[in-house]
């Protein structure tokens, strides 16, 4: 009985298996591959170190297949040393149209817009608590114009303008 107990303790002390480490390494390389397709603005929006940013920019310059493959290994290695690779992956998911994160943020902005049009300044105040960097005056102006469109039963695009502004603010607040 003690031999089984000692074997169980020894297995726990070994840490992750070599296969598990390789799977994690390949997963981070895939994240790095996805990062290569980002624009400079999208890359700036991600919480990455200067070292990783420089590696991504450098990889865009490399054209030879083997050199690119080796550099992708380097990007994966740099990703392993990042503070929060999960946050980077969530940020990447937000850029992909159709991803769960993108859809969730889209619906969140829609709900804020609908509530603001229906309830007015009270909800704008709640949104300011949620996203303190928002320009209150501009937001209230957009809400007022969108409410006016609803009251007059016109569609001049004010609700769409409000939605776009809210979408940017929601993305900023969720980063």
Ranges where pLDDT stays below 50 over 5 or more residues in a row are none
| Percent in helix | over 70%
Number of domains: 2
What structural class do you assign from the helix and strand content?
mainly alpha
CATH homologous superfamily annotation of the largest domain: PSPTO4464-like domains
Topology as a string of helices (H) and strands (E): HHHHHHHHHH
The CATH topology of the largest domain? Diphtheria Toxin Repressor, domain 2
CATH class of the largest domain: Mainly Alpha
Query: What is the oligomeric state here?
Result: single chain
Tell me the β content.
under 5%
Q: N-to-C terminal Cα separation, in Å?
A: 51 Å
Question: Any idea what the radius of gyration is?
Answer: 23 Å
Report the mean per-residue pLDDT as an integer: 85
Gross morphology: elongated
Q: Tell how many strands the DSSP assignment holds.
A: 0
CATH architecture label of the largest domain: Orthogonal Bundle
The biggest beta sheet is recorded as: none
**How many helices?**
10
Main location: cytoplasm
Family: Belongs to the DarP family.
InterPro entries: DarP, DarP_sf
Protein name: Dual-action ribosomal maturation protein DarP
């Amino acid at each position: 009985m003690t031999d089984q107990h000692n074997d169980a303790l020894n297995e726990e002390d070994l840490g992750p298996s070599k296969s598990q480490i390789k799977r994690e390494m390949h997963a981070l390389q895939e994240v790095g591959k996805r990062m290569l397709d980002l624009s400079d603005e999208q890359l700036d929006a991600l919480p990455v170190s200067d070292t990783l940013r420089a590696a991504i920019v450098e990889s865009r310059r490399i054209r030879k297949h083997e050199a690119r493959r080796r550099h992708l290994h380097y990007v994966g290695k740099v990703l392993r040393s990042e503070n929060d690779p999960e946050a980077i992956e969530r940020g990447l998911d937000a850029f992909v149209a159709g991803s769960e994160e993108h859809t969730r943020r889209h619906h969140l902005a829609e709900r804020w817009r609908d509530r603001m049009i229906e309830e007015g300044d009270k909800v704008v105040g709640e949104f300011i608590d949620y996203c303190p960097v928002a320009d209150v005056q501009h937001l209230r102006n957009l809400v007022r114009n969108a409410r006016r469109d609803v009251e007059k039963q016109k569609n001049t695009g004010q609700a769409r303008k409000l939605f776009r502004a809210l979408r940017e603010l929601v993305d900023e607040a969720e980063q």
